[in-house]
Amino acid sequence: MTKMLYNDSLIDINDAKLSINDRGFQFGDGIYEVIKVYDGSMFTATEHIDRLYRSADEIRLVIPYTKDVLHKMLYDLVEANELVTGHIYLQITRGVAPRNHAFPTEFTMPTFIAYTQEAKRPINNHRFGVSAIFVEDIRWLRCDIKSLNLLGNVLAKQKAHEAHCYEAIQHRGEIITEGASSNIYGIKDGVLYTHPINNYILNGITRQVVMECCKKIKLPVVEEPFTKEQALQMDEVFLSSTTSEITPIIKIDDTIIQSGEPGKYTRKIQLAFEEKIQQLLLV
Ligand code: PDD
Questions:
Q1: Does 3-118 carry CATH code 3.20.20.210?
Q2: Could you report how far apart the first and last alpha carbons of the chain are, in Å?
Q3: From the CB of 205, is ligand 1 less than 6 Å away?
Q4: Domains of the chain: which residue ranges?
Q5: Distance of CA 257 from the midpoint of ligand 1 (Å)
Q6: CATH superfamily of the 123-282 domain
Q7: Ligand 1: does its nearest atom lie under 6 Å from the Cβ of 41?
């Protein structure tokens, strides 16, 4: 039977019972992470756990485990489910209490859950690229917090889905922020551009790895906002996320980016990313 973590216990996934009074369910009052697993090993788990604790601090939620204990719990979950390739989803909410917007008492225990999902790597997307659309970014002003409140992201992604596109590239006015569930990059004349880390975007863990890959391949990086118009003029555009990894974007709305094929720098970043995964597996 597939297992999940429910607070600090490993239970059968079919035995999970969640309260209708859980604040995650009623207010989206909680945070989450998605961690990739390659060949049974968690990728950049420390960075994801650090970001979870940062999100928790930002919403004044106290996680009742140390980072090391949480890491071990996730490790045990992957082992129990014999997960080879896929990801872990984990979330923590402010717990169960009668519905009232203000925080419950300090004695209310957060609700923690985590489960695993088998998922093949999207290699066809990596090879051929995907299409995207522009969507106005209507989200709140704390997109740096990996909050369970994803309604803006959900509506953007649905628009992309209805347009038969893989991703929605969100923009505030003319400025591109990030994808519905990814970070966005453009490359022009041998320089990589991406939105700086601030409250308008999530500090993607894959983005952090992309930055290392750029250093490795000696591709200069400019962390400055760029516009929709500039995006359409880029030599290459791509997105990154835990599940999508490095995915070229070959079309935005009706505009084909350059030749309509993944660009050479994107390919180099993909290769450097692949090396990072291989390093993980050697440890
Ligand atoms: N999404 N920006 C947003 C809005 C995201 O939802 C994500 C990831 C990212 C990329 O972050 P990372 O590289 O740490 O995965 C950027 C996850 C995968 C999700 O919600 O499923």
A1: no
A2: 29
A3: yes
A4: 3-118, 123-282
A5: 23
A6: D-amino Acid Aminotransferase, subunit A, domain 2 (3.20.10.10)
A7: no
Examine the pLDDT at 283 and tell me if it is beyond 80. no
Whether 251 sits among the annotated catalytic residues: the reply is: no
Report, as an integer, the average pLDDT of 63-92.
98
pLDDT in tens, 141-166: 999 999 999 999 999 999 999 999 99
Rounded to an integer, the average pLDDT of 14-35 is: 97
Distance CA 34, CA 116 (A): 10
Q: How far is the CA of 72 from the centre of ligand 1 (A)?
A: 23
Quickly list H helices, 16-122.
23-27, 45-58, 67-80
Q: Model-level pTM?
A: 0.98
Residue range 87-106: mean pLDDT, rounded: 97
Handedness of CA 140, 166, 122, 188 (dihedral sign): negative
| Cα–Cα separations (whole angstroms), residue 252 to 13, 124, 139, 166, 186 | 40, 18, 21, 10, 12
User: How distant, in Å, are the alpha carbons of 122, 140, 159, 164 from that of 253?
Assistant: 22, 24, 12, 11
Longest dimension (CA), the chain: 59
Q: Which of 3, 36, 67, 146 is catalytic?
A: 146
User: What's the pLDDT score for residue 280?
Assistant: 87
- Kindly report, residue by residue over 118-141, the tens digit of the pLDDT: 999 999 999 999 999 999 999 999
